[in-house]
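pipeline/complex-builder :: batch 7 item 3
reading input block
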Amino acid sequence: MYKGTFAVLAVLGLWWAVAWGQSPTSTPKSILAGPLAHVDIKDAKVDAVRGTPRGTLNIGLHFGIDPGWFDPLGYYGPALHFYYLIHDALIKPMPQGEFTYSLAEHVEMTADFTKAAFRLRAGLKFQDGHPLTTADVKWTYENYRGYNVKLFQDKLERIEIVDARTIVFHFKGPFVDFLDLYSGAGSGIGWVLPRHYYEKVGKDGFKARPLGAGPFKFVSQEAGVQASFEAWDEYWRRAPGVRAINVRGIRDLAARMAGLQTGELDLAYGMTGKLLQKVMADPKLRWDPNFTAPWHLMFPGYNEPSSPFHDKRVRQAVSLAINRQFLVRQETHSVGKPWGNWISHENRDALCGDGTELPVPLHDPAKAKQLLAEAGYPNGFDFDWYVPFVPYFDMAERVLTDLRAVGIRSKVQMLDAPAYMAQTSKGRKGFPGNRTIVQRIDPRPGGAKALIRIYAVCGGPASYICEPQIEALWAKHEASIDLAERDRLSKEIQRLIVEEYYLVPLYLNPFVHAVTPKVLPEGDAVRHYWDTVNAPFPWPWEVWEVKG
Amino acid sequence: MATIPVGATYRTSVSRVARRSYRLVAEIPAIPLAMLAILAFAAVSAPVLAPHSKLDPVKPTPGQCQAKFGMADCPYVDNVPPFWARGGTMDTPLGTDFLGRDVLSRLMHGARISLVVALTGTLFAGAIGTLLGVLAGYLGKWWDQVIMRVTDAWLTLPSLVFAILLSSVRGPGLWNVVVILALVFWSRYSRAVRGEVLALRERDFVRLAEINGIGKLRIIWRHLIPNVMNTVMVLFSLQVGVAVIIEASLSFLGVGVPPPEPSWGLMMAQERDSLMEGKWWLAVLPGICITMLVLSANMLGDWLRVRLDPQLRNR
């Protein structure tokens, strides 16, 4: 409920409320001259009284841990889980709103979107006591190499450091999406890193022993298996509620369940599938459905004529073959919802896939067979691999069973999370050949356009789609600073992608997390941990509390 | 009335019978052969005798759909218990898995995969290892040095870890597992065969063949390889069991035979979660099959070892 409210606030706030020549933001002392866009960024909740951290929170992640996820400069994959622990951003999604002040206390953007300015809070420092200044912000921007790096570099004219707390980004032209992309959840570039430390230890040294300005200090890691963190009492916003957090990568659902039952884990993710009913029935466990994003299928290399998926009828047959209603029942005990869009409903400018704006795809195996026959596959065909998101291998087999019923046959490629993330983030190069289906999900904030930019346009970091019609619409979108027009274009692209079956949505995923009685507060109030919009994981971590 | 003979005579008679029985059992490994025969029969006849498809769900009756989901029609009914449990049916005697597939049919087809992978992989390993062992033992000099140093290095690698490494390089797949097994196990053969050939090459029949001007390749083919086959056969039978375990382990870890093919290791892995739900048979039945196959292969190998070694045989 809260998430929806915040999403609406963000819609109203950031883009729709942008007005030419409106008065500057509430901070009395303005940084930029001229007319400013009205940016709606929520104030951070700073605790007046600093509490004392106590207890340990043990988290069971549903896949192995990649040490690369500790370094925001190389951002990809589910790294935000760790950024919110170790690092801090200028602005980032928080329960207060999709855009919430964090290291920055004031942000301005000119009405023509060619300059953005940030003022940092006073007295900020990294966990080693070194002051955090605008020089670190500049260095982080200039050394970023993750998602959208080319866009950030191409758009930038120069970075002006006004003083140790004030920084101005000058762009070559309007950069309307800057705050969306620079916000902590949009990429790794907004998470400020300690230049002095990074340059001293190097990239690999930083991955091995990261340091940041976040609420928890890195303690140790066993690569791929476990990472430990301890509270940093001097975090600017508040002292963390728990003394230590241990994150363990446990791919096996039964092992996570056993961890919850024995008390070795206090919070476990991905409790869907075979054991969801057991989680629901266990009086000791509390769970949150945490609807994040829709599952969808992608076809790497579909636009090559030799690919069977080149033919729209084949992609449509794939969609028609899948019995979403039954899939949802079996995988989520009907908690999930069959869905008609591949973008989360919590994203601004996303078309809702529940039938109101985009129809829920039909299940019609007879028509699927007919379409396959028309496309030249009367007996169906074999494709190389079905690559599911980790560790949803049972779900992959369910989808494959549906596909096999209409004659589309394949086998499941079981990758571990770091390998899956690395391959999908390479875009077309990640999956050689053109007879593969990739099952994907991405609960990324930043509006639908953030996902379109990554997954649906030529050269997008993880895109397999390169269609002239979409490119034309996207070029218009990028050139426009008319927010209403941008919104319309974004929706047009979404509709096109779904109607042409470039991506095939499955269902809105309940990414069920379960907690034990050790986690405070007691009762259903525990759900406030899931209030951050579009958050796959229940951050921020500093608010978590457990029994001591 | 006849009297019972004195104890000594009775003991002698009993011990003779027991000895004979023991010899009979020892000479004909009936239990492992029977187990292997059952599994081989299941594997060979799976396409004909398996009651249902190995990949597709069993079509449920309206009654089953109604009972399970409250619907008149459904694509499948998952986790039907085996016939001895409440709710079980003889149509699916060992029940169905999480996708409504017949467990018995999948076990039968799983036997095919396990046997094909283990036998073929071990066969390739044996062929490579025997050839290299013979070359190293007979040709000597740098052949021996190079082959044996590589063999020694290979033998130091832990087989499962090495297999996982190779699997991550080659990717999952049935024939990839065969190649991996061959690459992992050839060194066992080359080490044993080389030792045997070192002794054989000093024997008169080899010397005489050389004096008669017979070529080295012909000597290897006609005289050496037939004489090391006993050792190779014993090793082969013992390695099959290990290969089954490796294949099952790779599939269990997700780097072996990819789903939806019914490998026993994979079936165990997929049903781990079911153990927590009390559906133990889904994970235990493939485990029993693996145990049966490995045990019978090892017992047969042990019997072969005794039978083909004159010293042990006459003891």
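note: The interface with chain A takes residues 55-57, 69, 74-76, 78, 98-99, 171-172, 254-255, 258-261, 270, 272-277 of chain B (CB under 8 Å).
queue -> next item
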